[in-house]
Amino acid sequence: MRIAILAHERFPDDAKTAVGVLRYGDHDVVAVLDREHAGQRVHGHLPDVQDAPIVAGMDDVPDCDALLIGIAPIGGGFEQSWRPDVVAALERGCDVVSGLHYVLGDDEQFQRLAAEHGAEIRDIRRPPDDLTVAAGTAGEVDAHVVLTVGTDCSSGKMTASYELREAARERGIDAEVIPTGQTGIMISGWGIAIDRVISDFAAGATERLVEQAGDHDVLFVEGQGALVHPAYSGVTAAILHGAQPDSLVFCHVAGQQRVGGYESFELPDPAAYAELYESMAGPVSGATVDAGLLNTADFERNGADEQLDRYGQALGVPVTDPVRDGADAVLDAVLP
Questions:
Q1: pLDDT tens digits for 281-295?
Q2: Is residue 263 domain-shared with residue 143, that is, in the same domain?
Q3: N or C: which end of the chain has fewer CB within 10 A?
């Protein structure tokens, strides 16, 4: 499918959905919409992902099948400055794919345009209607279940999941990612956005995903939020208990000391934070932090190596930056 990705004024640092799709998706990306960087190319910012031109709006986008909203702002709201591009896409008969909490399919203007031009609006954060509370049965699947957890939102959990899957597949292991957020769903084409699920059903939704994919040998469950995040800890705990993982991979952004967007809150010491995850997982699954993944994008090679050594010593487990150095060392640590 040929897609355009909307990332106005956020690309690449604050457009993790766009970056995730460019790095791991199978779509043919024909353009990225970002008024601030129009006229440039993706490879000028991210040389290790799929390349595409950066354009100012839909008027500059070549033929495509869909416009994908590539931004995941705090709260999942829709910015009205994006409306002209969504309107233009629908008027061209392009589908619109959104992972926002704002439901585009309920917007009267978008509904009308989609009907008039034969386009589809896909709000992928809409959960299934038949979810239930967890039965505590995810631990019965034959697959080895690995959950990526982190110190904060945007700490690399989704990236870790897909890098570990690719490293496993390169070894001939039947591995799959369990997508629990909008970016993973856009990449893999299935999953449930757990942060949109009624709280009583969130662990059950995670359990359902694990059981649906339990015929694979290894499952990498995409974690969400963080256990001490002042806003998003609930979804983290639900996934931790619903997945009943066998192993945890602890993700962090090198140098970060405070919660992103909530700078009055300090991040706990990594070792203490890892122990907190283990204590929360213990009564349900007994999972332990067996490896760490560190985002060292803000450091040169020597500085990155220092950060990796420091993080590894703090956790006492193998640590790597999967984008920079691959995920083999971590994969070895989490496989049975």
A1: 999 999 999 999 999
A2: yes
A3: C
